[in-house]
């Protein structure tokens, strides 16, 4: 079906975020377009998915997507992210969901101010360990508290599984020198980073602007991933290390794939990012609500609020 000359869809014509499927994962299929739906075809047949009802399309291994399908996703206010199996690796992404710069601007403003940056760092700690009051702690004190709590978690899982634990140690250049538990932890964390990275870019945020981590192109990825390690990657890694698998890395990736796919981490991660950056609590169905604002670019003013764009502010000749 030719779409040359079609009028682009306006945001008001799109499906409300609350009525969308937040994330759709596809692999080992050919993705095309049929009118206003994307189609996924494999040996079992063809499935039609209304493009405007999808927030983020995750493309796993073995997918082939046509130019028309990508054009439809863009016109529908959706984004496409190329990922590993079940979303456990991030490779690349298309245009984000964001119709405004609200989230990334809030991120940039918060990370550029020491007070707001420390406030968000404290909030992230409280999200991981809600039984402590850290409202008056400095970053140095937060790092100390975090290190103590994480070491305790490692010891607890070592005692639970009977795995010998001598500390976190790994060499990226020499994988084989690590013991099984450190190999499992590295593989599990890599899978988690892939999922978190996918969510961050789908929301239009910058993976580089971290609040605790800094100086790396994935600093914010590491910040957000740390929120979930104690309940996802650390228990899984110790369970695998306690087994008899000869392929620790492969078994870890497979278990993480299944755990992340069934645990609704994508929605939880999107909700947590919004809560951190905007200070707004909401359920998962409303997480993408502001992405459908019919935004018009404004002009920055150093003395007042931004002024309307598309207006000539020069004097008449």
How would you characterize this protein structure?
The protein is α/β, with parallel strands linked by helices and 317 residues long. It has nine helices and ten strands. It has a four-stranded mixed β-sheet, sandwiched between helices. The chain is flat. The termini are far apart.
User: How many beta-strand elements?
Assistant: 10
The order of strands across the largest sheet is 1-5-7-8
Mean pLDDT across all amino acids: 83
List low-confidence stretches: 1-20, 282-290
Cα shape:
flat
Count every helix, treating DSSP H or I runs of 4 or more residues as helices: 9
Q: Would you tell me the structural class of the helices and strands?
A: alpha/beta
Rg (CA only): 22 Å
Task: Write the SSE topology.
Elements: E1 21-26, E2 30-34, E3 37-42, E4 45-50, E5 54-59, E6 64-65, H1 67-75, E7 79-83, E8 90-93, H2 102-111, H3 114-128, H4 139-161, H5 180-202, H6 219-225, H7 233-242, H8 248-262, H9 265-278, E9 298-299, E10 307-308
Parallel strand pairs: 1-5, 2-6, 5-7
Antiparallel strand pairs: 2-3, 3-4, 7-8, 9-10
Helix pairs in contact: 4-7, 5-6, 5-7, 5-8, 5-9, 7-8
Record keyword descriptors for this entry.
flat, 14% strand, 9 helices, alpha/beta, four-stranded mixed β-sheet
Task: Summarize the structure in short.
Helices cover 40% and strands 14% of the residues. It has 9 helices and 10 strands.
């Amino acid at each position: 079906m030719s779409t040359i000359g079609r009028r682009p869809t306006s945001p008001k014509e799109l499906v409300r975020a609350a009525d969308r499927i937040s994330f759709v994962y596809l692999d080992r299929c050919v993705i095309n377009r049929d009118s206003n739906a994307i189609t996924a075809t494999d040996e079992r047949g063809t499935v039609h998915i209304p493009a405007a009802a999808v927030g983020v399309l995750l493309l796993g291994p073995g997918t082939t997507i046509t130019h028309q399908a990508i054009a439809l996703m863009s016109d529908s206010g959706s984004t496409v992210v190329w990922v590993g199996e079940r979303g456990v690796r991030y490779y690349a992404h298309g245009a984000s969901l964001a119709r405004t710069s609200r989230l990334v601007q809030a991120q940039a403003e918060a990370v550029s101010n020491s007070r707001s940056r420390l406030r968000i760092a404290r909030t992230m700690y409280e999200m991981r360990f809600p039984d402590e009051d850290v409202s008056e702690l400095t970053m140095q004190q937060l790092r100390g508290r975090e290190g103590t709590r994480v070491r305790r978690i490692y010891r607890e899982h070592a005692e639970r599984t009977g795995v010998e634990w001598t500390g976190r140690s790994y060499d990226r250049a020499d994988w084989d020198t690590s013991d099984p538990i450190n190999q499992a932890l590295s593989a599990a964390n890599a899978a988690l980073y892939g999922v978190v990275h996918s969510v961050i870019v789908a929301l239009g945020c910058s993976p580089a602007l971290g609040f605790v981590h800094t100086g790396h192109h994935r600093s914010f990825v590491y910040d957000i991933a740390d929120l979930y390690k104690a309940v996802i990657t650390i228990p899984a890694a110790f369970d695998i290390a306690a087994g008899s698998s000869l392929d620790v890395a492969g078994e870890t990736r497979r278990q993480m794939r299944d755990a992340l796919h069934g645990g609704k981490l994508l929605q939880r991660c999107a909700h947590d990012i919004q809560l951190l950056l905007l200070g707004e609590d909401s359920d998962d169905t409303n997480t993408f609500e502001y992405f459908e604002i019919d935004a018009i670019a404004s002009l920055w003013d150093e003395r007042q609020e931004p002024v309307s764009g598309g207006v000539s502010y020069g004097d008449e000749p």
